[in-house]
Amino acid sequence: MSSSARVRMSAAARREQVLAAAISEFATGGFAATSTESIARRAEISQAYLFRLFPTKKSIFLAATNHAFDAVEVVFRSAAAQSGEADRWDAMADAYIEMLSDRQSLVFQLQVYAAAGLDDEIRDLARDRFHRLYQLVRDLFGTDSGGALDFMAQGMLLNVTSALDLDLLEPPAAE
Are 40 and 46 contacting, i.e. CB atoms less than 8 angstroms apart? Predict the structure, then answer.
């Protein structure tokens, strides 16, 4: 896109564009292997402007992590609000399964957990956000921690099976 054809955006809108680009790039390369150059290129901005929005690659990754967890929270709150207490679990599960169809967001989520093993600040944020998500699920169910734990465990199982394109009801195809 030529600079004369570039659309003017607010800094907030540009940050959202960068976060979407970052999630795509980090999903592909992980935290360590993704370059800020590739993020800037995907976001169609200069690296200099990228660093005005986010001072470091880690700050981009942390912001993208918050963005991803925020998206899950919004989906869960919306599904819970649109369902009755009796069918809340199914409504939230269905909404999460729908989210998993966005492969880049799914793989990014897995990359966050992988990067948590490499960096204390990423681990601390991922731990905090996962705990907050668990608390939200617990609050939305209005039940003891067992129901929330079961829901979260099934969600993690869905993450892995979705990433592997694995249907647990069908045996893996022989090669």
Answer: yes
State pTM to two decimals. 0.88
- 123 touches 31 (CB < 8 A): no
CA-CA distance, 4 to 163, in Å (whole number)? 40
Rounded Cα distance between 41 and 35, Å, is 10
Output the CA–CA distances (angstroms, integers) from residue 82 to 93, 105, 122, 128, in the order listed.
Answer: 13, 24, 33, 27
Helix (H) or strand (E) holding 98: helix 88-99
Count other C-beta atoms under 10 Å from residue 23's C-beta.
27
Instruction: Please provide the size of the chain in residues.
Output: 175
Q: Indicate the residue type of 174.
A: A
Over the stretch 15-62, which tens digit does the pLDDT of each residue have? 999 999 999 999 999 999 999 999 999 999 999 999 999 999 999 999
